[in-house]
Write a structure and sequence with these properties.
The complex is a heterodimer of chains A (503) and B (150). Chain A is mainly α and 503 residues long. Chain A is built from 21 helices and two strands. In chain A, strands 1-2 form a two-stranded antiparallel ribbon. With 150 residues, chain B is mainly α. In chain B, strands 1-2 form a two-stranded antiparallel sheet. The two termini of chain B are 45 Å apart. The chains are: A mainly alpha (503), B mainly alpha (150). Chains A and B meet through helix 7, helix 8, helix 16, helix 17 and helix 18 of A and helix 1, strand 2, helix 2, helix 3 and helix 4 of B.
């Protein structure tokens, strides 16, 4: 009942003309970047974040969340039509989606992807709506030791699934913690790691690191090879856009499977939508009466991964909004956005900012409808986006990155730091260091240090406080167990396989 | 250079960073009567950084050389793009944002993608104009201004 009242309040916020406008802008931009291979939602949100500082926080978060789930819709378009996944989560959609398109059912495949995304996306939002309030209430019992343990657990899960090499993932996380330490210490006013320059006394702005590592790192990686310069073929005259009755009937279980698997995977930090889409595809194939046909263009092979990919967004919002723990690079950037707007995601978020929380939830319902309406008739138009030449796109991304960073601080020093972090992002890509643990380490670094130091203040320096409280002890045990998992060869081969599929 | 060397090199750089973190952290208070000091947290992650980096180096050194050789042409293109970006940052103060962006666009289109100068000029001017219209006029953002007043 409480959730329904909250949702009603949320719709009152989400349906305000201004918020509807920003929701549309978010899902439209998300669809566009989802269509474009090589530019992900994390990079886009990081670049646009500074431009939202003058917006009301509710409108801003509605728009940024729209980019997040809109990108997942867009990614399927190119996967089906051109066998080019716009997002890594759409890789598995290529298997059957492209085959359907080759058999002349491209329109139906796009329709199934859009319907499945809508059904599962809505399921994810309902899950978020129902699960978030009780989880937040439970988290109210947490004190500093539990928060430290929770953050350790979140980081351990991300490290476990971030890269094939656990050592590199851990090192990336430690570098994130180090960058977070730069500046004035929160407790003692000591300047740390400032290299004698006053520019670093306030620390390194999160936006600078996020844009550098994600956006510039990605662009520099893409610029390694000169594009062919030829236009990709865009199919015309998509007939039979809506799937027929037999195809929809075949997808019944896939809609449910994608919704449930995607949401559960989303709630767990670290796994992400790519793994969700692969698992739901595997489940669908395992229970199918004709598993041998998967890969030849069966509609449920499109519905399940596309559903999981979209339902995952709602799941990922649960730990972000109720515990303040992001589970991926994109949600880490959203967390940083909340903090920059003066909001603190966590157990009190629903109580303290009901308008924002429920407004966001309701906007996700609205956004899913917008995406369905946008995607069905406008698919041919979105496919035209692929005609933008690389040499025009990359200078635009460079320019937006510079504007984004300069807008935050008005400092050219930060623009120089942006160049440094861009190089770092590129080097990390080249040497297979995952960027998500670095970003999470950066976002959680100060919060983790604060929780640890407060815990030790409570216990007069006795570290046993972390393991003498049951919730904290359990979470720390789980974190250590997760980090030890790769020592078991079978588990590690599964982990590496999952990560390779993710890549 | 193979992947092996990349791991060894990055491991050594990170080990050096870890040593720097430890040295700095030892200069700050580790524990006071009020609780842990500013050196407490960095000291521990600095130690972890050194241990893990050395593990990475040892692991890479003991493994047979793996991975495809680095395509230095590709790396060179990316580094050239980065150098160009860094140069445009340096030029933002003397020339202003729009002119620096136009030069960056011109270089990327003409030199890195080998397009005719006419197209490169049009892209450079077009990019600068769109940024001016969108960010300076429409969104009222203040960006570094050059001697020409834009």
């Amino acid at each position: 009942m409480e959730a329904l009242i909250g949702l009603g309040q949320g719709f009152a916020v989400a349906l305000q003309p201004l918020n509807l406008f920003w929701c549309f802008v978010g899902v439209f931009l998300g669809t566009v970047i989802g269509v474009l291979p090589g530019l992900g939602p994390a990079a886009t949100i990081a670049m646009l974040l500074p431009l939202t500082f003058n917006m009301p926080p509710t409108s801003a978060v509605i728009m940024l969340a729209g980019i997040y789930y809109g990108a997942k819709y867009g990614g399927s378009t190119t996967a089906i039509l051109l066998n080019v996944p716009g997002e890594s989560a759409s890789v598995v959609t290529c298997l059957d989606g492209y085959q359907m398109a080759r058999r002349g059912r491209g329109g139906a495949a796009l329709g199934i992807a859009a319907i499945s995304s809508f059904v599962a996306g809505t399921f994810g939002v309902i899950g978020l709506m129902l699960l978030a309030p009780p989880l937040a209430k439970f988290a109210l019992t947490f004190s500093s030791p539990e928060y430290f343990a929770l953050m350790s657990l979140g980081l351990a899960m991300v490290v476990l699934l971030a890269g094939a090499s656990m050592i590199k993932a851990l090192l990336a996380m430690l570098v994130g913690l180090w960058i977070a330490s730069i500046g004035i210490d929160l407790f003692s006013d000591s300047a740390r790691f400032t290299f004698g320059t006053t520019h670093l006394l306030d620390g390194v702005d999160f936006v600078v690191v996020a844009i550098g590592v994600f956006a510039l790192g990605e662009v520099l990686g893409n610029m390694e090879k000169r594009g062919e310069g030829t236009l990709l073929p865009v199919p015309k005259g998509l007939r039979n856009l809506l799937p027929n009755r037999e195809e929809l009937k075949a997808c019944r279980f896939a809609f449910v499977n994608g919704s449930v698997v995607g949401f559960i995977i989303g709630v767990l930090p670290g796994a992400g939508s790519t793994i969700a889409s692969f698992i739901s595809y595997g489940v669908e194939k395992a229970v199918s009466r004709h598993p041998e046909k998967f890969g030849t263009g069966v509609p449920e092979g499109v519905a399940a991964p596309e559903g999981a990919n979209n339902s995952e967004t709602g799941g990922a919002m649960v730990p972000l909004l109720t515990l303040g723990i992001p589970g991926s690079g994109t949600t880490a950037i959203l967390l940083a956005a909340f903090i920059l707007w003066g909001l603190r995601p966590g157990p009190l978020m629903i109580q303290d900012n009901p308008e924002l929380f429920w407004g966001l939830v309701a906007s996700m319902y609205v956004g899913n409808v917008m995406l369905l309406v946008l995607n069905l008739p406008l698919i041919p138009l979105f496919a035209q986006i692929l005609k933008i030449r690389e040499y025009l796109l990359y200078p635009i991304i460079f320019g937006i990155s510079l504007v984004g960073v300069y807008t935050v601080s008005g400092s050219l020093f930060d623009c120089a730091l942006l160049a440094i972090f861009g190089l770092l992002g590129y080097v990390m890509r080249r040497l297979d260091y995952p960027s998500a643990p670095l970003i999470l380490g950066l976002v959680l670094g100060n919060l983790m240090e604060r929780a640890l130091r407060q815990s030790l203040m409570m216990s007069n320096g006795d570290l046993s406080i972390l393991v003498s409280r049951p919730i904290s002890a359990t979470m720390l045990f789980l974190a250590v167990a997760l980090l030890c998992l790769p020592l078991f060869r079978k588990v590690n081969s599964w982990r590496v396989k999952a990560i390779e599929e993710n890549g | 250079m193979k992947r092996l060397n990349g791991d060894v090199l990055s491991g050594l750089v990170l080990a050096a960073l870890g040593v720097y973190v430890i040295i700095e952290a030892r200069g700050w208070n580790y524990m006071s009567e009020e609780g842990p000091g500013p050196g407490f947290f960095p000291l521990w992650y600095g130690i972890a950084m050194v241990v893990l980096s050395l593990a990475l180096v040892l692991n890479a050194a003991m493994r047979p050389a793996a991975g495809a050789p680095v395509d230095w042409r590709c790396v060179g293109r990316a580094l050239l793009a980065w150098a160009c970006f860094a140069a445009s940052v340096a030029l933002m103060q003397p020339l202003g944002f729009l002119l620096a962006l136009a030069l960056l666009t011109l270089f990327v289109v003409a030199v890195m993608y080998g397009q005719p100068l006419k197209i490169a000029m049009a892209a450079a001017v077009g990019n600068a104009v769109v940024f001016h219209l969108l960010f300076v006029l429409a969104l009222d953002l203040s960006l570094p201004v050059g001697p020409l007043g834009f």
